[in-house]
Design goal:
Radius of gyration: 18 Å
Largest sheet: none
Strand content: under 5%
Structural class: mainly alpha
Distance between the termini: 24 Å
Mean pLDDT: 83
Number of strands: 0
Number of helices: 12
Length: 298
């Protein structure tokens, strides 16, 4: 439930206890499309609260919502956790919070489409690093060309914002790897729920400070809560449904559309227009992921 993309859902590395799906049905496609649109729409709504409570305030609220949802679903038995189980959970909590904070700050500086595209390099890098096929080398080169296009020197370039997007990508990659460890050591979704709870506790004093120094308006609070629901609760519950009914390659392939969805939502909802070079860079990164998945033998 990383960032603005589902990407990287807390379900990675956990067992859903159902047989592996073999085909994509209409319900699965509709759920994936709805999840992606919900995710990016939530991020767009959250950005509307930036002028009042800033990205930090929005992320704090999102962490609270994520913790509430995951605790309700995962029902972690915290007293039964061992030290061996706690350390990856705590690391996951830190990465989870850092990922969302860096992504939302990047959205504030460079826009929704570019920020989500840069963040998407995290799971793409994990996927490409896991194989040694020649086609994946080509995919890596295509993705690199996309990054160069997006981060090319120009007077209006915000390199801090793009750097934060890359930090979100690194956090997303770490999130995936840590989730696998947590999934191996903690049954079900208990580990992800515990990590979300710890992350929410970390942001509790931050949220209090933001509320005192920048009292939220009703509209800003509503946008922040909507971001938490649409970008955390809805995608998580949608993934619970989708991953039982859609093959993993198809799920990963559809996830690659998220940067395009983010750019479209940013354009229509926030007026964040992109030039042809930005669209080309986004297209290259999406194409690299799609090509890698479509040529996979798994």
């Amino acid at each position: 439930m990383p960032g603005a993309s589902a990407a990287t859902t807390p379900l990675i590395g956990t067992s859903l206890g159902s047989p592996r799906p073999s085909r994509v049905g209409l319900a699965g496609v509709a759920t994936m499309a709805g999840s992606g649109l919900s995710n990016q729409t939530g991020a767009a709504l959250g950005s509307l609260a930036f002028p009042v409570i800033g990205p930090v305030g929005v992320v704090a609220v999102r962490q609270y919502v994520a913790a509430a949802v995951l605790f309700a679903v995962g029902r972690p038995r915290l007293r039964e956790f061992t030290r061996r189980q706690w350390w990856p959970v705590l690391l996951l909590a830190v990465v989870f919070g850092t990922m969302n904070l860096s992504l939302y700050t990047a959205i504030d500086r460079v826009g929704l489409g570019l920020a989500v595209t840069l963040e998407f390099l995290g799971p793409l890098s994990i996927a490409l690093a896991a194989t040694r096929r020649r086609v994946d080398v080509c995919c890596a080169l295509i993705a690199a060309a996309g990054v160069v296009t997006l981060m090319r020197p120009r007077p209006s370039a915000d390199y801090l914002g793009m750097g934060l997007g890359l930090l979100a990508a690194a956090c997303w990659a770490s999130y995936i790897l840590l989730n696998r460890t947590v999934g191996d050591r903690v049954p079900g979704a208990q580990g992800s729920a515990a990590a979300a709870g710890v992350s929410a506790l970390m942001f509790l004093p931050v949220g209090i400070v933001v509320a005192v120094r920048h009292p939220p308006t009703l509209a800003a609070a509503g946008c922040a809560v909507a971001a938490g629901v649409l970008s955390s609760a809805v995608p998580y519950l949608a993934d619970l449904f989708t991953l039982r009914r859609v093959p993993a390659p198809a799920f990963g392939l559809f996830m690659s559309v998220n940067p395009v969805l983010a750019a479209v939502v940013g354009w229509i909802g926030l007026g964040q227009r992109l030039g042809w070079a930005e669209w080309a860079g986004i297209g290259a990164i999406v194409a690299a992921n799609a090509l890698s998945i479509l040529t996979s033998r798994d």
